[in-house]
Amino acid sequence: MTTTTVTHAPPVRPDRWITDWHPEDERFWATTGRRVARRNLVWSIVVEHLGFSVWLLWSAVAVSLPAAGYAFSVDQLFWLVALPNLVGAVMRIPYTAAVSRFGGRNWTTVSAVLLLVPIGLMVACVTNPATPYWAFAAAAATAGLGGGNFASSMANISYFYPERHKGLALGVNAAGGNIGVAVVQFAVPLVIVAGTGLHLAYAPLLWLLPVLVAAAGAWRRMDNLAVSRAPLREQAAVLRNPHTWVMSFLYIGTFGSFIGYSAALPLLIKTEFPAVSGVLFAALGPLVGSAARPVGGWLADRVGGARVTVVTFVVMAAGVAAVLANKDDFGPFLGAFLLLFVASGVGNGSTYRMIPAIFRDARAAAVIGIAAAVGALGGFLIPRGFGVSTARTGSIDAALLVFLAGYAVCVVVTWWCYLRGRTLTTAGRTP
Hints:
The protein is an all-alpha fold. It contains 17 helices and two strands.
């Protein structure tokens, strides 16, 4: 039992700043904290979900660009699905810092409004047949704004929940966002053929009203926590801790795989199996991966994040091997990718649960942002790996072999740093 006995409702200023927050106190959590945290979690999930949808919008639209009359090469199409991930990785650093600077409620609202930029630019591109490729690339890059939402959302929610509930809360928050990838890949192929002909502009417009509703909801229903206002110097201190970079590297293997395969799979199915009608199958991957993420957090709460993470990398290596062995048979090919997605989803939850176990308070939130940024680079590297491999060898084999080697390295790193006869408490926890 904790010694703190805060039982009153937290003071809330007119600008919705909560100045007294004690989630580790069990009585406070039961009477007040849980309700406030859950309300903020709901709207965080809504905005993050839409951020992921806009972030991966090009992965669903790029497949149909040739049919709409845009003569782009396969490698150019892979660039369009990779650029949002590169920009999204970069944006995650300032988005994380923005929570401490402006407050979680304030920044969540702003981040939702910013999604109108990539929506508007995509509409402008696909409604003009003379739009040059560079304009498509620039518009695709702005979709990376949606990728930044994840880091700020996770950092913000980490302040609301007590240590004993962080794994599940962060897993549910992330899963709600991640499933936006599946939604966009299910919805776009259906909406763009509504009526007569092909209407690519319907894809971005589908998210216009939800984004506006989410921005209004975040502004009216969320709160800012004063405890999130950590000095930048304190947050920057984590850059000197080697575990920050170890966890960031491992997150490339888990989340980078999830977002990279999500972006690449529609094009892979289109190029590897042109006889398969439609790309709705591709949405199954991010769907099962998103559903698996809370399971990873839940398992990590009970048996340890490092143990769960090392097993997921072994399974992901097996998944890549299965893809290599079934490149000519669509059923087993898709099944192998679904295995990859499930393992990456579980690994997403377990690696993120490891961070609060190593770091504390504002430092954990800062590491979450850094790991989210570095990990998202996998979303750029995987589509580019497939694009380069196809352009230079005519096959995706070379890319898959590189990914297989990468997972082997991740297994070794996880074991060496966190399972070699020590616990996370003795392996770098920052008091």
